[in-house]
Design a protein that fits this description.
17 strands; FAD/NAD(P)-binding domain; 13 helices; alpha/beta; six-stranded mixed β-sheet; five-stranded parallel β-sheet; 34% helix
Length: 379
């Protein structure tokens, strides 16, 4: 997990203005550094460099970190690379799923332009299976690398989950970034937390990003809850929420029992209780409610950050690949070959949700396996 390092004391941190806090947090996130110094400067070493195939065309589906990493390496190896991206801007998760306070988009776009200048083609607003034919791609490209990520969020199964005002965390993040880039956050063009009591269900970097954005929106209050205790949770003890706990309340060992609504169908409150963790006879962790800890709090916005189940169904319906029990793309004998002939998968779509660094590395390795496939099979 990327750590949130703040090089000043907590007392001084809390004295800063909100914009200054967010700027300091952004400057000390390691993701921007990683993008600048490693991800786009990866070079194929001579030992890994197979013969170049200038006339072999490869299609990459998705321009997130795995897709960009794969395009970078395949282009260096001499392949003709085209990246298909269904959104209006390249970058996938990095463009719309990562807040600007964490990764300024001009940095990302500059790196994408560098790939374009090096010979990589990007086709935007190209959704394979909808306005871009899968059959045409298979016909015109010798190999395909699926780097779609995992965009199918895990649903929230509890009473009140259909009330208005409940959003998946990714939709909240995407709406803010898209509105910022399109119109500088004109009112009504994004999901706003301004003046609201906000509940974030779940942890991880996505939940923490939501807390930061809700602060930037000037939410009235922010509560982030995690079922697990601090030793099991996906929220880093050194994370942003801990450093600003005067503004963001972070509760471990907390269960959301139900969401409450008003007479207009809007979410208006949450029923919570505390949990105590023990072990079953088989040694598995088991949680039970602590009697007398139930409480009801006012809430007008709920952001759900409980993970993803896998790639969207269209990936399996259109791309001819199989699903693992985890919901990710199954691969054949090698690490990345997903279907014959020459269909590969990489990134979160193959290995499941993980860090941006891992997705880039998956893209690099899938590119090398793709190149080796041609080296071994085409004489």
């Amino acid at each position: 997990m990327v750590k949130h390092k703040i090089p000043i004391t907590r007392e001084k941190f809390l004295q800063l203005t909100l914009p200054a806090r967010l700027q300091l947090w952004a400057e000390n996130r390691e993701l921007e550094d990683y993008i600048l110094t490693k991800a786009f400067t990866y070079k194929v070493t001579a030992a890994k460099l197979p013969i170049a195939h200038e006339k072999i065309k490869v299609a990459i589906i998705g321009s997130g970190p795995a897709g960009l990493g794969c395009a970078n390496v395949l282009n260096q190896l001499g392949f003709k690379v085209t990246v298909f991206e269904r959104d209006d801007r390249p970058g996938g998760l990095l463009m719309y799923g990562v807040p600007n306070i964490k990764l300024p988009k001009e940095i990302l776009l500059a790196k994408v332009r560098g790939l374009e200048e090096a010979g990589v083609e990007f086709r935007l607003n190209a959704e394979v299976g909808t306005n871009t034919s899968w059959e045409e791609i298979k016909k015109h490209y010798a190999a395909i690398v699926i780097c779609t990520g995992i965009a199918e969020p895990r649903s929230l199964e509890l009473p009140g989950n259909k009330l208005a005002g409940i959003y998946y965390a990714k939709d909240f993040l995407i709406s803010t970034t898209r509105s910022l880039l399109d119109n500088q956050l004109n009112a009504g063009t994004f999901i706003s937390a301004e003046g609201k009591d906000v509940l974030i269900i779940g942890g991880g970097d996505t939940g923490t990003d939501c807390a930061a954005l809700a602060l930037a929106h000037e939410a009235h209050s922010i509560l982030q809850v995690e079922r697990q205790d601090c030793n099991m949770a996906r929220i880093s003890e050194e994370g942003f929420c801990k450093l600003v706990k005067g503004d963001v309340s972070l509760q471990y060992n907390t269960k959301v029992k139900s969401l409450l609504g008003d007479d207009k169908g809007n979410v208006s409150g949450v029923e919570l209780c505390r949990l105590e963790w023990g072990q079953s006879k088989s040694g598995m962790p088991v949680a039970k409610e602590i009697e007398g800890t139930t409480q009801v709090l006012p809430i007008q916005l709920v952001l759900v950050s409980v993970g993803f189940t896998g790639p969207e169904a269209i990936v399996f319906e259109k791309f001819g690949v199989k699903r693992t029990p985890m919901g990710t793309i199954a691969t054949l004998g090698g690490l990345f070959l997903a279907a014959e002939p020459c269909i590969f998968a990489a990134g979160d779509a193959r290995r499941g949700s993980g860090m941006v660094e891992w997705a880039f590395e998956e893209g690099y390795d899938a590119a090398l396996e793709c190149a080796k496939y041609f080296t071994d099979n085409i004489k």
